[in-house]
Amino acid sequence: MRMRRKRNLEPRMEACADILLVRGRPMLNLKEAAETYRAVFDLEEVFGNDRPVELEVGCGNGAFIAELARRHPETNFLAVEVCTNVVLTAMERIRREGIANVRFLNIPAEILPCYLPAQSVRKIYLNFSTPLPAANREKQRLTSSRFLQIYRLLLAAGGEIAQKTDSLFFFEYSLKSYAENGFAVVCETHDLHHSEYAAENIVTEYEANFTAQGKPTYMVCVRMC
Predict the structure, then answer these.
(1) Which of 3, 124, 131, 220 has the fewest CB atoms in 10 Å of its CB?
(2) Could you say which DSSP state residue 48 is in?
(3) Rounded to two decimals, what is the model's pTM?
(4) Domains of the chain: residue spans and CATH
């Protein structure tokens, strides 16, 4: 079902313009945009400092990135979300909570290199991305070879990807894809909430809901070789 457009969407988006770096796509064809379009931001200028930068791909309502940014004021954070209705909720959360070290991109993840400098990101977070189990949708999975090549462009030397999912299928697919694309596992667990990594975990609203149903969270962190 298509999401209903938020009331007063445009004025509310405009009110968040100071933390929204880019919105939409530069051209209809994403492949053409990825290959030809460049409007790269100076991230030191964007944030007003030279602190390390980390990125969440698919930030949803912003709960994770807000808490992460609160815990780590020494780090700058970028959050990308393709759905305008959803990114508005995240931006309004950041504004409401007075968090200064987060900026947003309302674009498809496929065109991140159009706007972000190469080797500018220390860590990428993938939280409960849609598994897309149908074989004909593999290229759209956020851990497919197609996307891992994009992340390799953005990650600095030794950069990491941290992934959480409630889908065993997607978890196993991702592990295989990481190995085939030059990423080495740093840590992994099939039950995050009953592991040694639980204390540092930021629980999203979605995660809390299915955890209450007794479902496990699969987690892996990989490093670019």
Answers:
(1) 3
(2) T
(3) 0.96
(4) 1-104 (3.40.50.150), 118-225 (3.40.50.150)
